[in-house]
């Protein structure tokens, strides 16, 4: 038993279920409630489950997800939310949060309900190069979203393309 002058050394309590809300086509905000602890919390860790079944971890240093929890920088102990960037439209995400103190990490909270990013991501402007009098080449930067994009649609409007051959 502990007397009034002793502090029981233990990891933080499990946090309540966080919430996840889409901000735009590639970003969600994860928000959680902090609990009062006898031993001060020194940081938080966030695990994000992706609809394809994979799980990644929020790295506070870059504001994005990484594959290994060991590579994820902890979130500030003052924080009650983070903005996770680099996600993909059309994908469902859910999150859970753990707290740490000088004793160690708590267990993760229950997962949030899933949040679907439904707004299509606007692709970067493509580059168009004239190959011949009857063809053009269209190129763009590949998406870095997770899960990986498996296709693109290219629409060419004839009235927008005019070709002048100044060599003849």
TrEMBL record:
Q: Where is the Fibronectin type-III domain?
A: 14-122
Give the matching Pfam families: fn3
Keywords of the record, alphabetical order, are: Repeat
Question: CDD domains recorded for this chain?
Answer: FN3
| SMART domains, A to Z | FN3
DNA-binding recorded as keyword: no
PANTHER family per record: FIBRONECTIN TYPE-III DOMAIN-CONTAINING PROTEIN, TENASCIN
Q: What is the name of this protein?
A: Fibronectin type-III domain-containing protein
């Amino acid at each position: 038993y502990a007397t009034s002058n002793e502090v029981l050394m233990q990891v933080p309590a499990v946090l309540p279920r966080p919430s996840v809300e889409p901000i735009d086509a590639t970003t969600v905000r994860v928000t959680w409630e902090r609990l009062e602890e006898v031993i001060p919390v020194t940081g938080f860790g966030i695990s994000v489950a992706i609809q394809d079944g994979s799980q990644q971890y929020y790295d506070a240093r870059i504001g994005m997800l990484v594959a290994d929890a060991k590579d994820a920088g902890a979130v500030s102990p003052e924080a009650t939310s983070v903005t996770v960037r680099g996600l993909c439209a059309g994908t469902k995400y859910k999150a859970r949060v753990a707290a740490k103190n000088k004793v160690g990490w708590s267990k993760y909270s229950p997962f949030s309900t899933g949040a679907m990013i439904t707004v299509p991501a606007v692709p970067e402007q493509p580059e168009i190069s004239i190959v011949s009098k009857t063809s053009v080449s269209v190129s763009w930067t590949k998406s870095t979203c997770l899960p990986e994009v498996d296709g693109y649609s290219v629409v060419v409007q004839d009235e927008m393309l005019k070709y002048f051959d100044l060599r003849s």
